[in-house]
Amino acid sequence: MTRIHLDHAATTPVARQVLDEMLPYLTITQGNPSSVHGSGRVARAAVDAARDRIAAVLGCAQREIIFTGSGTEADNLAIRGVLERWGPERGRHLVVSAVEHDAVLETARHLEATGAATLTVAGCDSDCRISPGSVAAAVTAETVLVSVMAVNNETGAVQDVAAIAEAVHRRNPATLVHTDAVQGLGRIPLDPGALGVDLLSLSAHKIYGPKGVGALWVRHGVALAAQNTGGGQERNRRSATENVAGIVGFAAAAELAERVRPKEAERQTALCDRLIAAVEAQVPGAIVTASGARKAAGFATFAIAGARSDVLLTALDMDGVEASAGSACASGAPLPSHVLRAMGYPDELAAAALRCTTGRSTTPAEVDAAAAVIAGAVARIRDRAGAHPAGVGG
Ligand SMILES: Cc1ncc(COP(=O)(O)O)c(C=O)c1O
């Protein structure tokens, strides 16, 4: 059975040309970038070149990029590094949005629970949009950092990060603004300077690069406390021997993602529109989530009454369609989505999220077939439960 993979927001395969660039650094070159010998210098040059390439994609200075081991680590470094460095002077208050990925939300909650920070969680509207005014209203004289994501990983909603950063800085010029742009790279234009943020997180494996590599962009002049101490790599901001092949792969993937973005954004938006129309036509009562928001290309997201996510995903998997509930980490556990909850959905619907995310290989025939599979699975699940969504026949 050929499988239809509609879970590209969870991760993506490494693109062939990305792998080709990585391979010599896995097999031939043996250098540690910190070694003074020739092999070490080759590895150092590869890391330096990769930093230049990512800087060119973002339109920033290469010294503003810190390579990390993941998007999660970049988020942790941003939040913990700013809090530790600036908290004693500027205050220990954090503001994060209610729809952040757990890498931000759980980190902020943990810091609050341990007494390291105070926390305000800013809400969103029913379309997953976070208003600049509500974020700025949460900022006080003690607010050291605000973190609001660029693209929501459960709904694809694009936040107006530039307006949020401007509103926050107007309210308190000393407050730093971080954006988790892990789902933004390759989907929307990302220029940290134009966004007006101070820190921005990225991850390679969402853009056809390898897993286990991320980056934190930090505006020149913004100091933060290292969370990995040791050999002083990454200008003392993240000690660890550099993942040379991974970093090279990240740079190749970022360039490729930026090159194909205009065409893929258009193509995948059309694919998602087609999938949404087919699901709406074939699944009575299916709600398209965040439909009023500006959405990043590649997201078709639903809440389907009477079809709990874990049950539906298992049924789809058996029928050859791979999708997810919300974030990859949450699927498998029948917990209501914190994002849909923040959007005002009752628990029953928040536990019935379906996220389909397209990729470069997705075809119109696949989305048509997936819609039919989804419709069949939902009908069977509803029939078994003897339940139909309120006010919906069939
Ligand atoms: C918005 C967002 N932030 C952070 C992460 C974590 O990135 P990584 O998997 O590289 O740790 C993800 C991954 O799902 C994400 O979607």
Description:
The protein has 13 helices and twelve strands. Strand 3, helix 4 (102-113) and strand 4 form a beta-alpha-beta unit. The chain is of the alpha/beta class and 394 residues long. The radius of gyration is 21 Å and the shape is globular. The chain folds into two domains: 4-11 and 261-385, Aspartate Aminotransferase, domain 1; 16-255, 3-Layer(aba) Sandwich (Aspartate Aminotransferase, domain 2), CATH 3.40.640. The chain is 43% helix and 13% strand. The longest helix has 39 residues, at 244-282. It has a seven-stranded mixed sheet with strand order 2-8-7-6-5-3-4, sandwiched between helices. Pyridoxal-5'-phosphate binds at residues 70-72, 75, 101, 103, 149, 153, 180, 182-183, 203, 205, 214, 327-328.
Q: Which word captures the global form?
A: globular
Instruction: Give the CATH architecture of the largest domain.
Output: 3-Layer(aba) Sandwich
Going by CATH, the homologous superfamily of the largest domain would be Type I PLP-dependent aspartate aminotransferase-like (Major domain)
Helix/strand-derived category reads alpha/beta
Determine and state the CATH class of the largest domain: Alpha Beta
Which ligands appear in the coordinates? pyridoxal-5'-phosphate
How confident overall, as mean pLDDT?
A: 95
Strand content: 5-15%
Q: How much is the radius of gyration in Å?
A: 21 Å
How many DSSP helices?
A: 13
Keywords:
binds pyridoxal-5'-phosphate; Aspartate Aminotransferase, domain 1; 12 strands; disordered C terminus; 7-stranded mixed beta sheet; 13 helices; single chain; 3-stranded antiparallel beta sheet; alpha/beta; Aspartate Aminotransferase, domain 2; 394 residues; 2 domains
